[in-house]
Structure formats: structure tokens, C-alpha cells
Design goal:
Layout lengths: L5 E5 L4 H12 L3 E6 L6 H4 L4 E5 L5 H8 L4 E4 L14 H19 L3 E5 L11 H13 L5 E7 L2 E2 L6 H10 L2 E4 L5 E2 L2 E2 H11 L9 E4 L5 E2 H11 L5 E4 L2 H13 L7 H8 L19 H9 L7 H8 L3
Parallel strand pairs: 1-2, 1-4, 2-3, 4-5, 5-6, 6-11, 7-10, 8-13
Antiparallel strand pairs: 9-12
Helix pairs in contact: 1-7, 3-4, 4-5, 6-8, 8-12, 9-10
This protein binds NADP nicotinamide-adenine-dinucleotide phosphate.
Amino acid sequence: MEKIDTVCVIGGAGFVGRHIVRLLQASGYTVRVPTRRYESAKDLIVLPDVEVVEANIHDPQDLAALLSGMDAVINLTGILHEGSAGRGTFQQVHVALPGKIAQACAALGIRRVLHMSALNADAQSQSAYLRSKAQGEAQLRKDSLALTVFRPSVIFGPEDNFLNQFAALLRRLPVLALACGASKLQPVYVEDVARAFVSSLENPATVGQSYALCGPTVYTLQQLVQYVSALQQHRRWIFTLGKRASYYQAWLLEKLPGKLMTRDDYHALLGNSVCEGAFPAVFGFQPTALEGVAAQYLGSQALISPYDAWRGQARR
Ligand SMILES: NC(=O)c1ccc[n+]([C@@H]2O[C@H](COP(=O)([O-])OP(=O)(O)OC[C@H]3O[C@@H](n4cnc5c(N)ncnc54)[C@H](OP(=O)(O)O)[C@@H]3O)[C@@H](O)[C@H]2O)c1
């Protein structure tokens, strides 16, 4: 594999992107990060060897200018919900954009591409999010590219939109009726995802591979929410809705501003988001336990485990 010095991280100003960009910079790479809003990448602008550029990544000319002079491309661009406030559609962001990246790379002679997909990405999925993630992967599977695909379960970390969102809800609501609370998840730490990306960049063994990324432990959604509640030292009644009620709650929330949940999330949550095997050995480290990290940004009870919280609420 050719030596890599310069990397364009598309979607690099987002939650996962900021961790990957910082690790790339600390590892000696020169990094270019496009964003729609320069101010949203404030903490990256100050880093040496990181260039933040305002650009329209969907425009083939802007994209070619962005990728010009780069040795590798990392694509993290993604949305959880379609529609409002400049989000775009799954087709535009998850499918068409990877196709444009593949074309631009071929034209510029860039071979190395790392691509962020999602666990359970499947062209036959009932979830449009997961279908589009599978279609996006397919856009990049070209002979001209040395591609590595990453498929994480839900990602946690200080600025996550997952545990923090439940923490915010639990601060306000005494009772939480949880859609799909029995669904199983295997959350993975954002720093571990960043390490996996950066360590694969110049490792030829990872070319042509897809990696499922999960943390060390499987939880139900309800166990995780009870854990957040225990960390915050709240007494809350949290219960799981049945399948039909979960669907109707998703339907209702989809209509409300903020889209806390959609029917597409419901379909994605019906399948468990867990890994079949261990964390990929090729990266040379074990994934971080959620308990060691989440307690630091969600509460003070650092030693409570999600299982203790669950047993406590179940009075066992
Ligand atoms: N977070 C998770 O739990 C999780 C789990 C599995 C997979 N993933 C995948 O990991 C990737 C990163 O997730 P994240 O949590 O870091 O998301 P995030 O914080 O929302 O960041 C998403 C990035 O995508 C860019 N983006 C979104 N919509 C765009 C559009 N219409 N046009 C141009 N750029 C757009 C944003 O660019 P701007 O800087 O211009 O706003 C932002 O930098 C996504 O592909 C996501 O599907 C995330």
C-alpha cells in the first residue's frame, strides 16, 4: 500500500468525525474536513495540520476540489432521519454521495477509502436507513478502490445523541414508556471507533474487509435507559411498550418537532443491533466498557453497572 500523508474526512465535523480527525492529526496526518457551516467545526479549526473548508460535498466540482491532493478519503456523512432543516434524504446522503465519492476518487487516482456504514445494513431491511446504508456500501465496491467498511452498533461518548438524549428526557419525565425497550444493543465507544478507522488506514490486511464494531456487552434498551436514570440518581418509572404500542408511539413522535423517533427507527430497532463475533482482532485492542465512560459524562455513580440499575428497579 502507498504511503498516506493527507486524508479528507467527509462528515469529519460530526460527533464521530471529530474523534477521528483529532486522532488522525495526533498520528501525524494532514487532514481536510469539509462542512456546511465553518463554525460547527470550531474545535477542529484550532488544530495544526487540520484544514476546515466550507463546501457543498454533493456538487461534483466542489468534491473534486476537496479531494484533490488527498491520498485517502474517509466518508462519515450520515443522517438518522430524512427531511427537515437541510438534512437531505437517505438516497442523497447515503447512496448518491458515496457514488460521487467513488467517481471523484477514480478520476483523481485516489485508491484508499474508509467508509462508515451501520450494523445490520441490508438491502432487504425493513428500515430505509439500513437499506440505504447497504446501497451506499455497494456504490463504493469498485475495483479501482481499496475500500474498508465499518458497521458499528450504536456509538456512545460524551457528545453522543443516544445516552444523552435519554438523560435529557429522564430529567423532565417521571415516567418513560419506552418503544422497543426489549431490543438488544451492543454500544461501542466513539474513541474505539476512531482507533479502528485510524489503525486500518495504512493496514493492507483491512482492504476489502467490512468490520462490525461493538462494545464488550449486550444490553436491552430498557437496561441502558435504567442505567442512565440510576447514574442521574433519579427515581423514574421506565417500562417497555409492546410491539404495536411501540409502532404507534414512533408514528406519533415522527409527527412532532425534533423527531425523537420515527417508524423507520422502529423498523431498525426490531432487529437487535449486536455483533456475532468479538471485536476485530486486526485492530489490536479490546473495546472499552460503557460503564467506565458513561458514568463520567452522565452522572456521579461511577461504579453502578447497568445490571445493578436494572436489578434495583426490578427490586431484585
Ligand atoms: N452515532 C451513532 O450511534 C452511529 C451508529 C452507527 C453508524 N453511524 C454512522 O456514523 C456516521 C457519523 O455519525 P455521527 O453520529 O458522527 O453523525 P453526526 O454527528 O450527525 O455527523 C454527521 C456528519 O454528516 C454531515 N452531513 C449530514 N447530513 C448532510 C447533508 N445532507 N449534506 C452534507 N453533509 C451532511 C454533517 O456535516 P456538517 O458538518 O456539514 O453538518 C456531519 O459532519 C454516520 O454515517 C452514521 O450513520 C453512527
